[in-house]
Design brief:
The chain is of the alpha/beta class and 246 residues long. The protein has one domain: Alpha/Beta hydrolase fold, catalytic domain (Rossmann fold). The protein has helices at 160-163, 177-181, 193-208, 226-236; strands at residues 2-4, 7-11, 27-29, 36-41, 44-52, 57-66, 90-92, 99-100, 116-117, 122-130, 138-144, 168-172, 214-223. Residues 1-22 form the signal peptide. Keywords: Hydrolase, Signal. It comes from Elysia chlorotica (Eastern emerald elysia). Belongs to the type-B carboxylesterase/lipase family.
């Protein structure tokens, strides 16, 4: 770990880890179906999966939560815009969102059945929740996946084990290849939309992560390969200054 301009940069080359969530008034088990849990946020309620880990601890997993409007039509090759609230509906976050459009080099059996789409700006959240009593807000770790800026998806990485260590973990999808990094080096297509996606995802996480038991003032960015490079860029970018701590 290196220190750069007062910010710790954590770069991870390879890691096998996973989810966690603490109890608060925002979390309520679904009485009619104990396999699910619902969390209230400013954007609306989010329904995720609930797994019993022990007599006192549950693991909550929320998949495919949108953080931006679909980057299609006028938003294709443009800056991302924040997602619109979905209230009064409950958002079903029990399945992975689509992978961003990308080059396919080899088949990935871990992601069979996960479709490609331009509508791909989603996050996954792994958290634990105490069944009895309250727990202090937990540190948050937001992961930026590898793939050389032209491939990959946050959906590939299951952070259950890491979450069980007392951390709320978030993985992020961002636009890739031509859709994420094409530039004409002018105002027509300025480029770096994938970076702008991840920066907007960080804003979204800071807004809602407290509802999942995470501490929005204790966020660590980490990544592998090109994801680690993005973390380095964010330590210097004014778009993300002061929005994460490590």
């Amino acid at each position: 770990m290196k220190r750069l301009n007062g910010i710790h940069v954590l770069m991870v080359v390879s890691i096998l880890i996973g989810p966690t969530l603490s109890k608060s008034r925002h979390v309520r088990s679904t009485v009619d179906d104990p396999d699910y849990v619902t969390v209230s946020t400013k954007y609306g309620d989010i329904k995720g999966r609930n797994y019993n880990v022990s007599d006192s601890l549950d693991l909550n997993v929320f998949l495919g939560i949108p953080y931006a409007k679909p980057p299609v039509g006028d938003l294709r090759l443009a800056r991302p815009e924040s997602v619109q609230p979905w209230t009064p509906n409950v958002y079903n976050a029990t399945q992975h969102g689509a992978k961003c459009v990308q080059r396919i080099l080899t088949g990935d059996p871990e992601l069979e059945g996960v479709p490609f789409s331009e509508d791909c700006l989603f996050i996954d959240i792994y958290a634990t929740r105490e069944r009895v009593g309250a727990r202090a807000k937990q540190p948050v770790m937001m992961y930026l996946h590898p793939g050389g800026f032209y491939g990959g998806t946050g959906a590939k990485y299951n952070f259950t084990n890491l979450a069980l260590k007392g951390v709320v973990v978030v993985t992020v999808n961002f636009r890739l290849d031509m859709f994420g990094f094409l530039s004409t080096q002018d105002d027509v297509i300025p480029g770096n939309f994938g970076l702008l996606d991840a920066a907007l995802a960080l804003d979204f996480v800071k807004e809602i992560i407290g509802n999942f038991g995470g501490n929005p003032e204790d966020i660590t960015l980490f990544g592998a390969s090109s994801g680690a490079a993005m973390v380095s860029i964010f330590t210097l970018s004014p778009l993300t200054r002061g929005k994460f701590q490590k």
